[in-house]
Amino acid sequence: MLPANAANAMAIADFNKDGILDIFVCSYHGGRTRDLHSYIYWGSPGGIYSQENRARLFTHSASACIAADFNEDGWIDLAVANHKTHGLHPGNSTVWWNGPKGFSEERVTLLPTDGPHGMITVEPGNIMDRGWEEHYISSPFKLLKGCYPQGIKWEANTPPKTWVKAQLRCAPTKESLAQSKWFGKNGPGTWFENGDRIEKLCKGEWVQYRLALGAYNGGNSPRVTKVSVYYGV
Questions:
Q1: Right CATH number for 131-230 from 2.40.160, 2.60.40, 2.60.120, 1.20.140?
Q2: What are phi and psi of 231, to 5 degrees?
């Protein structure tokens, strides 16, 4: 159990860039006051969160929040809607700017608001890790005997701050594909850019491709209409 004060909103993100998701919890009401701390519970290995490992951000009846990299500096910032400030609906909501030294009241932008309730229902990013990419894995398909994949290309609409990249894997049987490594232009774990080709990727007539569909801050979406796999003999 993690202590909170009438929590009615939270944001999940990797605020300190340690590869583990953290939890920001809005404090809406403390019983006698609405001007009180909200909390960031820092994630620890194994999915452990505790009262002893948290940071405090002073808020005013915090009613909503969004975690995203607003200034695109690589650090996840935090916008908080404050419902009441010192008992009054007119007040300031806040943008807390993150960075190598974490959050600080010295790096806050005040935004005049009037009793806001709610900001967003779906948080930006992949629901699993809050990254900016979603992945699509194709159905397995079989090449002609003696053929092998050499590269991949696609047709896609990529609005600003979106991208597409791809990987391939192959195996001698359909059943063994799941144990094969994903390859890109420079070997296992790397990715192909559109139209990349190499001389010989891997052996096996059964092939799959994987697409990474990226959108910074989740603000748009690439749309792929066609994928072609190069192969040789």
A1: 2.60.120
A2: -145, 155
With a CB cutoff of 8 Å and minimum separation 6, the contacts of 85 are 35, 60, 61, 91, 92
Q: What angle do CA 70, 73, 74 make, to 5 degrees?
A: 95
Give the count of alpha carbons within 13 A of 185, CB side only: 11
Calculate the alpha carbon distances from 182 to 107, 129, 176, 195, 201 in Å: 42, 20, 13, 17, 10
Task: Summarize pLDDT for 44-56 with one digit per residue, the tens.
Answer: 999 999 999 999 9
pLDDT digits (tens, 9 = 90+) for 60-72: 999 999 999 999 9
Q: What is the pTM of this model?
A: 0.88
Tokens of 51: 């009262």
Contact 96, 62 (CB under 8 A): no
Write down the domain spans for the chain: 5-112, 131-230
Q: In whole angstroms, what is the distance from residue 4 CA to residue 30 CA? A: 9
> Parallel, antiparallel, or unpaired for β 54-60 and 62-68?
unpaired
DSSP string, 33-57: -SEEEEEEEPPBTTTB--TTSEEEE
Residue 177 has phi, psi (to 5 degrees) of -60, -40
